[in-house]
Amino acid sequence: MQEQYRTLAREGVHEIEINKSRFLCALAPVATESEAHDFIARIRKEHPTARHHCFAYVLGADGGIQRASDDGEPGGTAGVPMLQMLVRREVRYVVAVVTRYFGGVKLGAGGLIRAYGGVVGEALDTLGTVTRRRFRLVTVTVDHQRAGRVENDLRTTGRTVREVTYGAEVRIEIGLPETDLDTFRAWLADTTAGTARLELGGEAYGEV
């Protein structure tokens, strides 16, 4: 399983103009193909008079799902260079839609490839990326007397506190790199005089 991956920091739009044609690149982080297609449909609806809505997306921490569409542009001149830019930048769980308003001047195959790939690259630079790392989910159960100190220590030492639930006892869910588990067990036992319980859960990705 992939230890970490890079993805888009935030949704946004970047525009360039080449020979009177406008190229608007909308980027968004997405988790599934359904989310990607919903975003593509949304962009089409926002720009109903545009000539083309070409798209590309990469899903999976290993980039295992890759799709692209030229949407009426000459084959291989739009969706493929967009996808190649996403892959070359090693971004995952991201969809790119480039909306083109034709300006009356034909750009040729080379010009289109540079325009579609280039606007995606510029959009990535503008919006930025974040790295997500694989974590093991761990739930710490501790009494109310010690809970405040434990939670504070977790946060001040840079641990990823995901959720805190108060009941008869306090349950604190955190994300830990697999390699930190043994060290964390020892720290927790020392901090709580052995009174806290630790339960291992599944895996998830979180920002580094």
Order of helices and strands: EEEHEEHEHEHEEHE
**Low-pLDDT regions:** none
| Chain-averaged pLDDT | 94
Number of strands: 10
Q: Terminal Cα separation, in Å?
A: 17 Å
Residues in helices, as a percent range? 25-40%
Number of helices: 5
Instruction: From the alpha carbons, calculate the radius of gyration and give it in angstroms.
Output: 23 Å
Strand content: 35-45%
| SSE-based structural type | alpha+beta
- Shape estimate: elongated
Please give the largest β-sheet. Answer: 5 strands, antiparallel
Brief description of this entry?
The protein has helices at 33-46, 79-88, 108-127, 144-156, 181-191, and strands at 4-8, 12-18, 21-29, 52-59, 65-69, 94-101, 129-142, 160-166, 170-176, 197-207. The longest helix has 20 residues, at 108-127. 33% of the residues lie in helices and 39% in strands.
